[in-house]
Amino acid sequence: MKVVVIGGGTGTYAVLSGLKKFPDVELTAIVTMMDSGGSSGRLRDEFGHLPPGDVRKCLVALSNEDLILRRLFNFRFEENCSLNGHSFGNLFLTALTEITGDTAKAIEEASKILAIKGRVLPVTLTNTTLCAKLTDGSVIRGETNIDVRKEKTEAMIDSVYLDPQALVFPLVVTALKEADLIVIGPGDLYSSIIPNLLVKGVPEAVKVSKAKKVYVVNLMTKHGESDGFGASDFIKEVLKYLGPGTKIDAAIVNKGKVAPEQMQDYEKEKAFPVKYDFLECQKLVGRVIWCPLAFSGKLYRHDPEKLARTILGI
Amino acid sequence: MKVVVIGGGTGTYAVLSGLKKFPDVELTAIVTMMDSGGSSGRLRDEFGHLPPGDVRKCLVALSNEDLILRRLFNFRFEENCSLNGHSFGNLFLTALTEITGDTAKAIEEASKILAIKGRVLPVTLTNTTLCAKLTDGSVIRGETNIDVRKEKTEAMIDSVYLDPQALVFPLVVTALKEADLIVIGPGDLYSSIIPNLLVKGVPEAVKVSKAKKVYVVNLMTKHGESDGFGASDFIKEVLKYLGPGTKIDAAIVNKGKVAPEQMQDYEKEKAFPVKYDFLECQKLVGRVIWCPLAFSGKLYRHDPEKLARTILGI
């Protein structure tokens, strides 16, 4: 079965880590290329390449777990040295891009070196900036500025767009068209998931694809992005950027309670569990699957195996 | 045939590149770990690891030439960016050392990843500083300060030593004892070749080894290290540090003329072709092989293939 996952960041890492364990799944990860913060953002500024961070996470998710190269890819140098807190995997991709002169080729070579199960495709090769228009009319430029807001404003995000307009990487279109199942999310709504749908050619390819389309709703809201959002609000936003006429066959919503000790850190960040507003969700998608998906660790995260089983059960 | 090469730097790169082409040669490179300049030196200072530079060069020399990882290992980031002119291969070895917590293990893992033909062994795991006593009585500390002298003095090197005393890496002893052929040099006399012989246990193992011992004399003198040296002066110094009772079975000396256009850069650096003082050499070693070994490029360097054929012809 051909499964295409659209995203970037931690949520996509969980989906890919879970799905790769199933031998009959042929995986393709379509990854946002709009990161502008941290090690990835600095390399982007200095080398004029596309930011490597989200690609790196997907490569690691799909790599052979026994491989020492996987540990290397996850290694980060300290801040207080001449390596300036860079992620080794980002440096690897940057050096490969310098050598090959080509982002797509660099990802392909890294995929071979890491012996990944599946493929990682950049959603676009356009060097573009993610921008957000807020409800107070102001505009924020840059993924990291949207992700971690510097200015104290209670304004919500009205809409996001890319400047300049980005063109889809052609293999992405083929992958979407040939897919049996398209999985969108989970992940930061405006900084990881929707940026993929802003790329010209992506919503169009999702629309014409005969694949079942699944959206995995986040476990927690995010301050400045999705404050007070119920599951249906997430779905509505994704549908809005998918464009008219595209249906989501199923939405997957977590059933469960966050333990008080897990909540402490989230409360500091004003993040709260996403409420399951069943009736609203039912109106938006073909089917809603409400089941326990979370991992019982220090953080409240999607459990890769539970998530993969639920997705493949559709 | 088991061949052990002792060195570090460009000369050793040439020997290893040449010898690895011969299928019946089982290669071990014993590498100096006293580098203190450039990317390697900065990583050494910041991480407290042993300097990776010389190991990196040997790994590249022995790696599969079609491998993109080989090109990555040779890649160097620019000076004017947050990567501060670091060699990617050095970063690779540094990250591997951080992950494994062990220099020898890191070299072993890198050897596997690069699919090298042969082995690279650090001469010592002691974190030590190369020091030079000059003929004017002054002392220079640090390999890079000896290699590229900062102070303008016409004093020659009287002797070199390690501070603190370094202990041989045990596998080096085994390799030397089991060798059929031990190749010393070519390379910077006091900063690449002799540092290996300063490690406690190395001269002792060379002495008891039944291997044929070959010394490859440099093509050019080096200002501040070997001004005015004839071939016999190089041999004398190596014999001095090998210690009493150890014989060199053969010395290999280049026969040839440096073209005027090649000499221009060397003259600026006060480097001149090493004179072949036949009679003096004959007194010091079992046999002297005098034949054309140089590569006809922009720089006057040992040709890996000619050198390997000459070495194996012994």
From the structure provided, what is the oligomeric state, counting identical versus distinct chains? homodimer
CATH topology of chain A: Rossmann fold
> Which class of secondary structure composition applies to the elements of chain A?
alpha/beta
Assign an overall shape of chain A. Answer: globular
User: What is the architecture of chain A at the second tier of CATH?
Assistant: 3-Layer(aba) Sandwich
Order of helices and strands of chain A: EHEHHHHHEEEHEHEHHEHEHHEEEH
What would CATH call the class of chain A? Alpha Beta
Explain briefly what this protein structure is.
Two copies of one chain form a homodimer. The first copy, chain A, is of the alpha/beta class and 314 residues long. Chain A has helices at 9-19, 38-47, 53-62, 68-74, 88-100, 103-113, 143-147, 170-178, 189-197, 202-208, 231-242, 260-268, 278-284, 304-312; strands at residues 2-7, 26-31, 119-122, 129-134, 139-141, 157-163, 181-184, 212-216, 250-254, 287-291, 294-296, 300-302.
Your description of this structure?
The structure is a homodimer of 314-residue chains. By secondary structure, chain A is an alpha/beta fold. Chain A has one domain: 3-Layer(aba) Sandwich (Rossmann fold), CATH 3.40.50.10680. Chain A is 41% helix and 18% strand. The first copy, chain A, is built from 14 helices and 12 strands. In chain A, helix 2 runs parallel beside helix 5, helix 5 crosses helix 6 and helix 8 runs parallel beside helix 10. The radius of gyration of chain A is 18 Å and the shape is globular. Chain A starts with a strand and ends with a helix. The mean pLDDT of chain A is 95. At the A-B interface, helix 2, helix 4 and helix 5 of A face helix 2, helix 4 and helix 5 of B.
